[in-house]
Specification:
It is a single chain. The chain has about 350 residues and is of the alpha+beta class. It has three domains: about 20-140, Immunoglobulin-like (Sandwich), CATH 2.60.40; about 145-255; about 285-350, Arc Repressor Mutant, subunit A (Orthogonal Bundle), CATH 1.10.10. It has helices spanning about 1-15, 30-35, 95, 140-160, 165-185, 185-195, 205-215, 215-230, 235-250, 255-285, 295-305, 310-320, 320-335, 340-350, and strands at about 20-25, 35-40, 55-60, 65-70, 80-85, 105-115, 120, 135. It has a four-stranded mixed β-sheet, with no helix packed on it. The termini are far apart. One of its GO terms (biological process) is regulation of DNA-templated transcription. Keywords: DNA-binding, Membrane, Transcription, Transcription regulation, Transmembrane, Transmembrane helix. InterPro entries: Sig_transdc_resp-reg_C-effctor, Tscrpt_reg_LuxR_C, WH-like_DNA-bd_sf. GO terms for molecular function: DNA binding.
Length: about 350
């Protein structure tokens, strides 16, 4: 009986030890990027090239020399798209800076992983981060490889900007990316490629619709997705977009209406944004002076912000850490009733 109980315990421990557990670790420069590192899951593949606050599900702080570490067993057993990123955005306004997925003061690494993967991102030469990748999953770095080819594509399009050159490049690069994606044998990588080749705001969108009429590639990709990732948001989103684009083609709607629609949409957003900014600035000017004056250090930081200094440059000039600068900026915003650097500059110019 004791032996049976002992074997049962051993079996349970073995079962637990074989359960998936991921480890994502690496190093950053805390003086340049602060101490917080974020981990995001990307369900919408069209948001895989940018940083969105609503994708973040974990964050951690580095140790004193910049090492960070994520570990656990809550990820999916199958491959999914994830991102690790750092930024110099103030927590108070981070959601604003990332609302459209763009943050100029950030570094990110988008990758494919599952619950049993180990990924290491050591600091590389010149303190560059997220450039060197050590991983147990051969699919982890496929997005980085795609991005390298994408840079070649951008250069090719920019080298000669004639209509004839654009048509030749469209045909060449669509085939290049589709062939490369299939060789990777990873449908999520093909989705990443599809997301920018079929972007309705890109110059290649008209060629994509023509390609969709004649090529079986897109239906084949749907089959590969359903086979590798059945009943996932990746498959359902792609199937929905593909059906929508095919319907638009079959209904005979002109592809050239999209630039007009885009222009109208951007004009409307710009107009509303300008009205909102004017109203907001008027409210700022009508506010009373802050009850609590800025400290001497806060006044220095406010002046440096008005000189368009970054958090890192301010930290270097005042001999403090980036985290300390962020804390001071947060206090400045609260005391002056502003929410961004632009509002602070406007406030300073009126006082």
């Amino acid at each position: 009986m004791q032996r049976l109980f002992f074997l049962l315990i051993i079996g349970m421990l073995t079962s637990i030890s074989t359960m998936g557990q991921y480890t994502f670790k690496g190093s950053i420069d805390p003086q340049q990027w602060g101490e917080t590192v974020y981990l995001s899951i990307i369900d919408d593949y069209r948001k895989s090239s940018s940083i969105y606050t609503d994708q973040i599900f974990l964050k951690t702080n580095t140790d004193s020399i910049g090492n960070f570490h994520f570990t656990g067993n809550e990820l999916e057993p199958a491959n999914r798209i994830y991102r690790i990123h750092v930024d110099n955005c103030n927590d108070t306004v981070q959601w604003k800076n990332h609302f459209y997925g763009y943050c100029k003061e950030s570094k990110s690494f988008t990758f494919i992983a599952n619950n049993s993967d180990t990924i290491t991102l050591p600091m590389s030469f010149d303190n560059e981060i997220f450039c060197t990748i050590e991983t147990s999953n051969p699919k982890t770095s496929v997005f980085s490889r795609i991005d390298s080819i994408r840079e070649e594509m951008k250069f090719a399009y920019g080298e000669l900007q004639s209509e004839a050159s654009r048509k030749m490049n469209d045909k060449k690069w669509f085939k290049t990316f589709q062939d490369f994606g299939m060789k990777l044998n990873e449908p999520l990588a093909e989705l990443y490629i599809y997301s920018f080749l079929s972007d309705r705001t890109s110059p290649q969108y008209a060629f994509y619709l023509e390609d969709l009429k004649n090529s079986t590639y897109y239906d084949d990709l749907l089959q590969r997705l359903n086979k590798s990732y059945p009943n996932t948001i990746y498959s359902s989103q792609y199937a929905s977009e593909l059906a929508s684009d095919k319907y638009m083609i079959s209904s005979g709607r002109s592809t050239f209406t999209w630039p007009k629609i885009l222009f109208t949409l951007l004009f409307t957003i710009s107009f509303i944004g300008n009205i909102f900014l004017i109203v907001k600035l008027r409210r700022i000017t009508s506010k009373q002076a802050p009850v609590t004056p800025l400290t001497q250090q806060e006044q220095k930081i406010a002046q440096l912000i008005c000189q368009d200094k970054s958090n890192k440059e301010i930290a270097d000039e005042l001999f403090v850490s980036v985290s300390t600068v962020k804390s001071h900026i947060n206090n400045i915003y609260k005391k002056l009733n502003v929410q961004s650097r632009d509002e602070l500059k406007f406030f300073q110019s009126k006082n």
